[in-house]
Amino acid sequence: MKREASPKFWPIQRKKFSWAVKPNPGSHPINRCMPLALIVREMFGFAKTRREAKKIISQGSIMIDGKILRDDLFPAGLMDVISIHEIKKDYRVLPSKKGLILHPISKDEAEFKLCRIENKSLLKNGNIQLNLHDGRNLLIRVRDSQKPEEDIYRAFDTLKISLNSREILEHIKMAEGMSAIFIGGDNIGKYGHITSIEKQPSQKRKDTLVTIKDGEGETYQTILNYVFVVGNEEPRISLPQMEGR
What we know:
Layout: E1 33-35, H1 36-43, H2 50-58, E2 62-64, E3 67-68, E4 75-77, E5 81-84, E6 89-96, E7 99-105, E8 112-122, E9 128-132, E10 137-140, E11 158-162, E12 168-172, E13 179-182, E14 191-198, E15 209-213, E16 219-223, E17 227-231
Antiparallel strand pairs: 1-4, 2-3, 2-5, 5-6, 6-7, 8-9, 8-11, 9-10, 11-12, 13-14, 13-17, 14-15, 15-16
Helix pairs in contact: 1-2
């Protein structure tokens, strides 16, 4: 793809060369991901050219969400866990004011991932299918989907998922008082506790106005579609310090 057309947060020189590697279609939309070759070359500095980056990736030294990947065009995106065992370091892809960043995390934190529920559907056999933000689908087996105590999941809730067993470790609801981070809009990267969720009549739920208050007492607003719940009183993941703190 043309470098001028690539997402602004990609750390590439846009006028030095004409073309940039384009991630393959997959788990994340192009405005919320980066190709693995770009991460290895520009962000980690392990290579100077795409050929070198491709060789490093083909050796199976990089894992994303617990799986070894050898495709240099794989789209690494929001909340993905990137592990490099040769240097014993783990990172989580998080939103920031500049777009997406690689945030260093501990070994324990690299064992799970947070996924937002984008949609859910009722299957013919009565079970529930959850569609998550990273493209994966989860089948929830229930006896009666009409019972509220069994159908507990809702769009924009967050699931804490083990990267080893692929099991749901925790269900975090989208509600007031929860810890959340903004993943889009003018306040992308801001995080704090949700103080209000204001739904207007005849308004789509994804356009609901959400307000958060950070640790310094500052408040920020965006629509629900740009909000990612990361915990209750305390976030389940480590978060980078905001600029200006």
